Amino acid sequence: MHHCRSCIIYCFDKPKGGITLSATGYLQVHAYSSFAQIPLKDVAITVTAPDGTAIAMALTDRSGRIAPISIPAPDFDISQTPDPGQIPFASVTLHARLQGYEQITAENIQIFADTVTYQELEMIPLSELPSQWSKYELFNTPPQQL
User: Fold this and answer.
1) Concatenated DSSP letters for 94-131?
2) Are 60 and 40 in contact (CB under 8 A)?
3) Which of 9, 11, 38, 88 has the most CB within a 10 Å radius?
4) 145, part of any domain
5) How far apart are CA 146 and CA 141, in angstroms?
6) Tell me, what CATH number does 92's domain have?
7) Residue 13: inside a domain
8) What domain range includes position 55?
9) Residue 17 in 3-state DSSP?
10) How many domains does the chain have?
11) How does pLDDT run across 100-125, given as a tens digit for each residue?
12) What is the SS3 string spanning 41-103?
């Protein structure tokens, strides 16, 4: 486990569908206010594995970004010669929360070995959605056609 000022990162090596997650991919997040695209500081980011296990937690800085998060992924070679029986990426879910803004959940974010996956978070101020204060927005990323 790695500790730093703005995040706690939990790394794990678990087989997924018979594939060992022996490589590393990265997730980079950028959170901003919806219309003005102003970066949002202190957005609570939580990244979880498909089984709900916490992989990482971080707060965005004043630029609305976090340091790239290292995430275990299948070996790079698996993504270069796709086999229908093997998934060449790790799949994670990202939750983003900031008081006064709509909550966001992005599911099935694909993490490939030796690659940075960028996730933009356009957060809507709740003042613009007064009837939806308790709701959240869900984004589901479909698998890539490899």
Assistant:
1) EEEE-TTB-EEEEEEEEE-TT-EEEEEEEEPBGGG-GG
2) yes
3) 88
4) no
5) 14
6) 2.60.130.10
7) yes
8) 2-125
9) coil
10) 1
11) 898 999 999 999 999 999 999 999 88
12) CCCEEEEECCCCCEEEEEECCCCCECCCEEEEECCHHHHHCCCCCCCCCEEEEEEEECCCECE
Q: How do residues 11-66 score in pLDDT, each as one tens digit? A: 444 444 556 778 999 999 999 998 788 999 999 999 999 899 999 999 999 999 99
The three-state secondary structure class of 132 is helix
CA distance 76 to 89: 9
Here the tokens at position 72 are 């275990």
Q: 143 lies in a domain?
A: no
Q: Flag whether 134 is in a domain.
A: no
Retrieve residue 83's tokens: 């086999």
